[in-house]
Amino acid sequence: MMHPEIRLRQAQEEDKHIIWDILQQAIARRKKDGSSQWQQGYPNLGTVETDIANGFGYVLTVDGVVAVYTALILNDEPAYSTIDGAWLSEGEFVVVHRVGVDERFAGQGMVKKLFDHIEDFTRSHKIQSIKVDTNFDNVPMLKILESKGYSYCGEVCLAGGIRKAYEKLIT
């Protein structure tokens, strides 16, 4: 069996509608799972457009097809400067926000693959850690972070809610 080619690349303007479709699927899934995350009009198409314009938007492609969307932001998450707890490090970091999987690729371990690619991205930029937060009730993401060796660091306040914050040191 051929292994699909999986790549992480910067999102382009022409990706924005597929990205928005993926995020709408994710918003619907969070709601179906009974989560309050992403149920207040964020993220939205404007969020995607801003991510792409700022160079934050990234897509994980499988044989050229967009499977996963995320925003990767270097050293810039004001909410992370105040944590009820403690980060593992004080240096440069990559922030992971807005992870969404196309339902055609759901259940195939795509988010775990995404995090592997984010580690490579972080290493290649010579950055020492990855920081990420998620809702208390986003069980799938909590499980992934645990399986990928992220350390629970405490709580941050983001988008009007308390989020669980995690960090992984990349050497």
Automatic annotation (TrEMBL):
<dbReference type="InterPro" id="IPR016181">
    <property type="entry name" value="Acyl_CoA_acyltransferase"/>
</dbReference>
<protein>
    <submittedName>
        <fullName>GNAT superfamily N-acetyltransferase</fullName>
    </submittedName>
</protein>
<dbReference type="InterPro" id="IPR000182">
    <property type="entry name" value="GNAT_dom"/>
</dbReference>
<dbReference type="Pfam" id="PF00583">
    <property type="entry name" value="Acetyltransf_1"/>
</dbReference>
<feature type="domain" description="N-acetyltransferase">
    <location>
        <begin position="6"/>
        <end position="171"/>
    </location>
</feature>
